[in-house]
Amino acid sequence: MKTTTTKLIRRAGGAVIVAGLLLGSAACGDDDDATTATESPAGIEEASSTTAPTTGSTDAPAEDPGGDPAEDGAHDHVEVTAVDFAFENLPAEIEAGTRLSLVNDAETELHELVAIRLPDDETRPVSELVTLPESELGHIMSAMPQAVLLAEPGGEQVPAVGDGTLTEPGRYVILCGIPTGVSPAEYLAAAAESQGGPPTIANAGPPHFISGMWAELTVTP
Questions:
Q1: How many domains does the chain have?
Q2: At how many degrees (to 10) do helices 184-194 and 14-26 cross?
Q3: Domain at 35, CATH number
Q4: Which domain holds residue 110?
Q5: Per-position pLDDT tens, the chain of length 221
Q6: Taking the C-alpha atoms of 46, 56, 99 and 122 in order, what is their torsion angle to the nearest 10 degrees?
Q7: Residue 161 and residue 6: Cα distance in Å, rounded?
């Protein structure tokens, strides 16, 4: 089952990217509760997770004399854990060139990590942005994501855009746009069939970021 799902993720490609950004309307459009995306942000500010990062350096030389990697600025990899519905071990700030990876610890939900750099003139906190109407939110986050990583429960990460490395300094919104209550196989099959557009899934729930699966991340030079 995991092999089949991984193949579907790779086939979905750009469709998954678009879905992650537009599901606020596309996934909820066939649901009577579509207004949830913009009318029920209660508690959303508390839902974002910015706990201490789990990090590790890569390709460390054997003769490394030691020292604290945090003091040396050697944090070039952060493993982010996706749960229902939050990102764990994601710091509030990382250095440019840091690579993010995604582990899905949820029991049934497919999760993604979409990293979108916000415009330099956008100063509102992400906690406010995620409550905006879809039309306004889509305009603000219209830039191509710098990274899109997907993982089924207990499965391997599959990169859809980039490898998770964020190279451009700035302020980012990190979110998961997968609809709630849809099986990984069903969602990915629909995404692959959409050929670049948001997948149409009957009775799909609101995107995960509506339930709090978002975070604000600053990438420093």
A1: 1
A2: 100
A3: 2.60.40.420
A4: 2-54+75-220
A5: 444 444 444 444 444 444 444 444 333 434 444 333 333 333 333 334 444 433 343 444 444 444 444 444 445 999 999 999 999 999 999 999 999 999 999 999 999 999 999 999 999 999 999 999 888 888 888 889 999 999 999 999 999 999 999 999 999 999 999 999 999 999 988 888 887 677 888 889 999 999 999 999 999 99
A6: 30
A7: 15
CA angle 68, 71, 72 (to 5 degrees): 90
Tokens standing for 154? 């207990």
Stated length of the chain: 221
The pTM score is 0.70
Residue 153 lies in a domain: yes
Please state whether the peptide bond connecting residue 85 to the residue before it is cis, i.e. omega within 30 degrees of 0: yes
Cβ atoms 148, 16 nearer than 8 A: yes
Assign residue 135 a region: left if phi > 0, alpha if psi is -120 to 50, beta otherwise? Answer: alpha
